[in-house]
Amino acid sequence: MKTLYEGKTKDVLTDEATGAVYLLFKDSATGENGVFDPGSNTVGGSVEGKGKIGLKISNYFFELMEKNGIPTHYKGADIDKGLMEVRKVTVPPLEFVLRYFTAGSMCRRFALEEGIAFEPPYLEVTLKSDEQGDPLISERLCLMKGLLAPGQYDEALGLLVKVGEVLKKELADMGYSLIDFKIEFGYDENGKVVVADEITPDIWRIKDENGNIPNQIDCAKMLLDKIG
Questions:
Q1: pTM of the predicted model as reported, rounded to 2 decimal places
Q2: pLDDT (tens digit per residue) in 35-52
Q3: What gap in Å lies between CA 184 and CA 182, rounded to an integer?
Q4: Domain spanning 2-86: which CATH class is it, in words?
């Protein structure tokens, strides 16, 4: 296996003999000062077994997306090896955010109280850049920077809403309320936009029936009990 890219919580690998592409789910977790937080841009520590648990959850939700007609880059997973095989797609440095309630950085940026409901959900797109603080970015700037082709921005936002609907319902059936989530999209050789990267507690905030918001480590353990 050759490493193509090293990320905070995942690496991108390729099998040079077959050309297959894989994501390796690592045990590292984002956070700061010993506190785990899916919204953080830094690695806050390592938790043994986190990678395989995250892969199992991602496997579950990618298959759920496919069942609901949402295109993804997912091809299969080897849980024991911590590897998810994916289609070859171009993934621009963008994160697509959907918010059902105010939380986290939005409250800090705009001096808003936590927990204000959005109806319809609030959509944001940010540029993935730790140095620039992940600034908000518009369709026009995405086109100017060559990150997306015409039409792909709106196509991704349409898929973002559909992903949210599926996630919200599935998590509600498990007893949780979805607060917000961020997700990445890629596009294939024909320009078709697909869900990429991962679908794990590293990308969302949820609230349990008692109003508690678990960190991504505790949330993963809770979900693992639900999906078996």
A1: 0.90
A2: 666 666 666 677 888 999
A3: 7
A4: alpha beta
